[in-house]
Write a structure and sequence with these properties.
With 694 residues, this protein is α+β, with helices and mostly antiparallel strands. Among the domains are: 118 residues, no CATH class; 192 residues, Immunoglobulin-like (Sandwich); 148 residues, Tetratricopeptide repeat domain (Serine Threonine Protein Phosphatase 5, Tetratricopeptide repeat), CATH 1.25.40.10. The chain is 34% helix and 28% strand. The chain contains 21 helices and 29 strands. The strands form 7 sheets. Strands 1, 2, 9, 10, 11, 13 and 14 form a 7-stranded antiparallel β-sheet that branches. It has a 5-stranded mixed β-sheet with strand order 21-27-26-23-24. A 4-stranded antiparallel β-sheet has the order 3-4-5-6, with helices on both faces. The termini are far apart.
């Protein structure tokens, strides 16, 4: 168990190490500082304290931060993503790193003018830690002073199981330098060598006469490795030295650094250091009524829960935004996904991935979909970004992207609800990684858009599987074989598929020509079992529910398609006239068209009910009354808004216009002066006050 900054007891299930399908989109325009432009404490941290263990991605992100507060939070995240045991209060990695840094400064800088951390021995010690063994060769007349370090058990860093590192003093002076067999050679270790400077074999034989142990590592730092036929070192030692330089950060998933930079201005401070990796699966299906829905599954790398009595709970807050190619916001939503589990379920989930399923309607167009998901218990966040293209309803023939699943369950026929990845009467279960067992039956689900009756009757589908770009298996099906067409669900047993990487392509043929196709890749694993995910699904109303009509109409309105949007909103309001949200949005659309009568008709009934209303109701209703000449009634509405929500410049400025329209200049002057006291930067209001004074 661990505690977060709020003192909650949290249990974290390390579900899966996911590779997020994320595309950086916010930080590309941020200018980087030069290290010397940083305040001294952060310059020292970057260029001295973590210089050997920070990745290029992390370094680049750090140099793009603008404030000391951001830098402090980044440093906190930097150490947090290296903590080997988050269940303890102490960060063992950080403690060990600063111990190594102090040791290097104390022990390796004595014989040189530079601090110990800058020396070769200091650098290696900071990166790799204490050697398993050290041999020193000093006071020898035939060889220069040298130290031979031996390391073992570094496989997790991507290094050999055992290797040597040799440090020597060139010409017997100065500090110890890291020896490179390829560029230094045995002759660099000898105090006197008069042979051919390129004759490594002769130098090796001479060195072996004086110091056999030194000679054994002079051509290779890896025990037992054979040299080339000419007695020269192989490239293995050179590669080893290069791998050591990057081994300190190669194990760290540094995606968090880019996410910190991208979202530091969006997520709350308590979340900003807790980026969590994730993976996602997304597809688009068209419903029989012609409406498109975006289906997606998010798979966070871990699930953190807090215990309340006999339950383990959390809540995922999901914020989704869709923007057009010009950056205009088209749709935004916020949803909560509560998770409540008992102890047995938690124990089962500890061995499974965790998936959140959701879907929403979207009108045709090209968009950037951005999803921000926050675990409100652990204060962790993850993100997903993807380009989406929704084709026009008249497009076709068009094949939508393939959905590959490991299972498909028959869904009961119901029109009052809709779930993600529901197609052809089945609920298809897939995972972002698209990994399958040989014992699985692959479910291939997809849609065809725009097929006419003849194309449905006479068309055929070709399924082709490829391994290493070579066709592995193929078969053909007539479209009319599928009772669910133009929705299709095909099953393919994977018994004959050996573990490998594959691609499946589905092509639609009509009249001997391929008119549409789609492809997807997947893997067959060597493993005999796979932990399939625990799914937490958001269920939305059925496709005919006016909520979806209202959402898509709002999307059209945000695209500037006001007339088309109003048609959809009017239909939604007619189906649900008691919806305050529907009526308000439609009224705002009519207000933008200066149709004040219809705006008043939509909103007046809600004011007569005596129920609390949102601020936007008062502003929209009041402005409609104002512009239609009902000034005294508009003043009443604005006064009610001020009584309930307090003063602001919008309400005060509108009140001033109403008073001026009634020729009450004194009242207009009072409210406009109050408005300027709240925001002096209002040149139009200043101009109106000056005219009143005249």
């Amino acid at each position: 168990m661990i505690k977060n900054s709020f003192g909650l007891k949290i249990i974290t299930l390390l579900i899966l190490s996911c590779g997020a399908l994320a595309f950086s989109f916010l930080s590309g325009q941020t200018k980087s500082l030069q290290p010397k432009e940083l305040p001294e404490v952060y310059y020292k941290w970057l260029e001295e304290e973590v210089v050997y263990i920070i990745s290029p991605t992390e370094r680049e992100a750090f140099l793009k931060l603008k404030t000391d507060r951001e830098r402090d939070l980044f440093i906190e995240a930097f150490w947090k993503h290296r903590d080997p045991d988050p269940m303890t209060e102490e960060n063992e990695f950080k403690k060990e790193h600063y111990r190594r840094l102090a040791y290097a400064n104390h022990n390796f800088g004595r014989a040189t003018s530079i601090p110990g951390w800058k020396t070769d021995r200091g650098r290696v010690y900071i990166i790799l830690g204490e050697p398993n063994d050290i041999q020193r060769f000093e006071g020898q007349s035939q060889t220069y002073p040298a130290e031979l370090w031996f390391y073992q058990g570094m496989e997790k860093k991507g290094l050999p199981s055992g290797f040597y590192l040799l440090f020597f003093k060139p010409q017997g002076i100065g500090d110890y330098r890291l020896y490179n067999p390829a560029s230094d050679g045995p002759m660099a270790l000898l105090t006197s060598y008069w042979g051919d400077p390129m004759d490594f074999e002769s130098a090796y034989e001479q060195l072996r006469e004086y110091q056999e142990q030194l000679a054994s590592v002079s051509l290779s730092l890896i025990p037992g490795e054979q040299t080339t036929a000419l007695g020269r070192p192989t490239l293995s030692s050179q590669m080893l030295l290069q791998q050591i330089e990057t081994s300190a950060w190669r194990e760290v998933e540094t995606k968090y650094a880019q996410k910190f930079l991208d979202y530091k201005d969006i997520v709350e401070v308590e979340y900003s250091t807790n980026y969590m990796d994730s993976d996602a699966l997304i597809c688009v299906f068209q419903e029989p009524n012609g409406m498109y829905f975006v289906h997606y599954a998010l798979e966070p790398a871990r699930l953190s829960l807090t215990q309340q009595e006999n339950q383990f709970i959390t809540n995922f807050k999901m914020n989704g935004t869709l923007t057009a190619d010009d950056g205009k916001l088209i749709y935004q939503y916020e949803k909560n996904v509560p998770v409540k589990l008992n102890l047995q379920q938690v124990q089962e989930l500890g061995h499974k991935p965790f998936l959140i399923h959701d879907l929403f309607p979207l009108v045709p167009g090209s968009y950037k979909f951005s999803l921000l998901v926050k675990n409100e218990v652990s204060k962790e966040f993850t993100t997903y970004e993807r380009r989406l293209r929704i084709p026009p309803a008249t497009a076709g023939p068009l094949m939508m992207p393939l959905l590959l699943g490991y299972n498909a369950n028959k869904m009961p026929e119901t029109k009052d609800r809709l779930r993600a990845f529901q197609i052809a009467g089945y609920l298809v279960y897939g995972q972002p990684g698209r990994v399958f067992l040989q014992s699985d039956t692959l479910s291939i689900a997809f849609q065809m858009i725009g097929l006419n009756s003849k194309q449905l009757a006479e068309g055929e589908l070709l399924f082709a599987f490829y391994q290493n770009d070579q066709e592995f298996k193929s078969f053909t099906r007539r479209v009319k074989e599928y009772s669910s067409a133009p929705e299709f669900l095909e099953y393919v047993p994977l018994t004959e598929f050996k573990p490998a990487h594959y691609k499946v392509t589905v092509s639609y043929r009509f009249g001997g020509q391929v008119l549409a196709s789609a492809s997807e890749e997947f893997d067959i694993t060597y493993r005999e079992t796979l932990a399939r995910p625990w799914v937490q699904a958001k269920v939305v109303p059925g496709v005919d529910d006016p909520t979806h009509l209202f959402i898509t109409a709002t999307q059209l309105y945000n695209q500037g398609k006001v007339e088309e949007a109003i048609k959809g909103m009017e239909k939604a309001v007619s189906l649900r006239p008691d919806s305050a949200e529907f009526s308000l949005n439609l009224a705002q659309a009519y207000l933008s068209l200066k149709n004040y009568k219809r705006t008043e008709e939509l909103l007046a009934p809600f004011f007569n009910q005596g129920k609390p209303l949102a601020y936007e109701f008062y502003v929209t209703f009041g402005q409609a009354l104002q512009h239609s000449g009902q000034l005294r009634r508009a003043i009443e509405i604005f006064d009610q808004a001020i009584s309930r929500f307090g003063v602001n410049t919008v309400l005060l400025n509108s009140l001033g216009e109403c008073y001026l329209g009634l020729d009450d200049k004194q009242a207009a002057r009072v409210v406009w002066e109050k408005s300027l006291s709240l925001n002096p930067d209002q040149p139009e209001i200043k101009k109106k006050l000056e005219e009143l004074k005249k």
